[in-house]
């Protein structure tokens, strides 16, 4: 049983683990448990797996009416999680973070079923810290996680990533053709996550005329919440080399096309980008618990493996940072080489090995 979700950063690692497990153990049955109304309820069935949704929701940091229903939803989710665990009777339960993982792992631990936590970030969330006390293994992607978890149960595996990202060789021409890009222009790939990032979108809008004038083209994943507005503004501008997309499914081709990448610093994005080996500008989101995206990014910046641009300084400065990189071939090469040194391409297989030990 695999539980968690809420964002692509939780869902895609979970699917990667399930795929790798089923490759080795095709006769197994895998059940996902997610949160009703969240991305996993669509993405998991698309990947070919069954999922059950719980009514659980997060506690808002601000005082809102939604918080009044939090205890009711939590209790209901705990009751349902106990029933699901009892009926499915899993040999092991994997929690990848997100609202649903709390009730499900709590229920499994209550029945003495082995649990494994996969913590993607450099700063552990409260739920995982609580669950780690009874978890058999905690798979992490960053050093120093013993400040959150019992040291004797930590395994530094890295984060699971999509298999098609492990080899981008020879895909550039196909990528340019797929996205309708010009082979004579440098490609800037802008990634704000599946839902979108206002700062990154405003940054592209601010600089897009200059991007085109200076011979760049932008492949821009603006996110679900912003697509309609960004598409209209791009169309009104009459610019031919600003390619706006709500969501990019073919991420291997997007990475293959890119000369430089501008991205939020969610854990999955950071792990994927280390495999890609291209120059990256991280613009961490300030709207996450404990500012963990900045911590994720700094783990790379301190190794001269990426550039950090603060969210509050991004609009109006994005293109300057891109120019500084692309006008310096030595910097392009060193950033690409240094970020690849931090990659963990076998993370998914290592996690599957740890799950096997718990099932044995």
UniProtKB/TrEMBL annotation:
Annotated ranges, domain Glycosyl transferase family 28 C-terminal: 187-335
Reaction equation(s) it catalyzes: di-trans,octa-cis-undecaprenyl diphospho-N-acetyl-alpha-D-muramoyl-L-alanyl-D-glutamyl-meso-2,6-diaminopimeloyl-D-alanyl-D-alanine + UDP-N-acetyl-alpha-D-glucosamine = di-trans,octa-cis-undecaprenyl diphospho-[N-acetyl-alpha-D-glucosaminyl-(1->4)]-N-acetyl-alpha-D-muramoyl-L-alanyl-D-glutamyl-meso-2,6-diaminopimeloyl-D-alanyl-D-alanine + UDP + H(+)
Gene3D superfamilies in alphabetical order: Glycogen Phosphorylase B
GO molecular function (one): glycosyltransferase activity
Keywords of this entry: Cell cycle, Cell division, Cell membrane, Cell shape, Cell wall biogenesis/degradation, Glycosyltransferase, Membrane, Peptidoglycan synthesis, Transferase
Binding positions (UDP-N-acetyl-alpha-D-glucosamine): 7-9, 121, 162, 194, 248, 267-272, 293
Domain Glycosyltransferase family 28 N-terminal: 1-139
Family in the record: Belongs to the glycosyltransferase 28 family. MurG subfamily.
Protein known as: UDP-N-acetylglucosamine--N-acetylmuramyl-(pentapeptide) pyrophosphoryl-undecaprenol N-acetylglucosamine transferase
UniProt organism field: Algoriphagus limi
